[in-house]
Amino acid sequence: MDVLVLGLGPAGARAAEAAARRGLRVLAVERRAEAGRPVQCAELVPASIGAELPGLASSVRQAIEAMDTFVEDDAPDHAHPFPGRMIDRLELDARLVQAAAAAGAVCRLATAARAIRADGCVTFADGSRVAPRVLVGADGPRSIAGRAIGRVNRALVETRQVTVPLLRPHDATDIFLSGGIPGGYGWLFPKGAVAHVGAGVDEAHAGRLRAIVDDLHARLSAEGRVGRERLALTGGAIPVGGALRPRGLLGATPVLLAGDAAGLANPVTGAGIAAAVHSGWLAGEAAAALVAGERRAATAYEEELDAVFGVALARAARRRRELARSAGGKTALRRGWIAYPEYWKEKP
Description:
Oligomer: single chain
Distance between the termini: 54 Å
Number of strands: 19
CATH class of the domain at 3-48 and 87-154 and 241-323: Alpha Beta
CATH topology of the domain at 3-48 and 87-154 and 241-323: FAD/NAD(P)-binding domain
Strand content: 25-35%
Strand order of the largest sheet: 6-5-14-15-16-13-17
Structural class: alpha/beta
């Protein structure tokens, strides 16, 4: 096997497609029985992602034009334009896996990696083994591939989200910043006839998450913006410590990390789909180059990720640390959020 990809989310599916298009023998595996299910995502992506995914329109459920940010009990600050798209992750993930398979990758669902040996050989839950020439870890924030090469996401935010009826049309994402939501924020993301209402908090405060989301849902329901019925519930972990070094070696086997496995989610917003799509494709191309004998391909991959994401992730990680060290308050909350000019300015 030339390339083994762990994970078939957006990063893994794109990596598998990119490598297969270069003529490699690619196996991509996913522990879940269906790509994208359960959906553990708020489903908001930047409008610019369409440049990398020309077929994205089939997955879009609503356009987002603005962002309304509520800081504690203040009236919302309206940022426009703030273009985005609300997508159907289940449809998107399925389509990306189909594209990988059409390119020639063998995609196997319900196949979990159980262990990775020091030489890069991967053992699956059924006892079978694969020894790839290149291993791509696109297996999420608690990546087994990352752990094998000592790249571990140590800072995580836990999230909880309910899907509810949206009673009034809305074209903005609503962000709720408060000292009562430690290390994260609350949100209302409209998606056609429904909305996602949720929150993320530092892992240490995960025990408070249910009450935080319940309170936010109750508040929005009392305002007549959303219905009381809960149509779906989801949640998951997001890496918020910033980028990890996305490469390593297990014996002679190069290992490349992509998406959340590489810590590419934004430490402030938690957004990670666009980074997953981009890094996955780059990882697949780098894997193909490594198989072809291009020794610098892994280094070049790391350099490209740093060039594309390094500045933004480093700034977000600083803002997150600053907010954690601060005494709190509205000024600190605004400096720590992307919609405010203070976020983008360095202190004199």
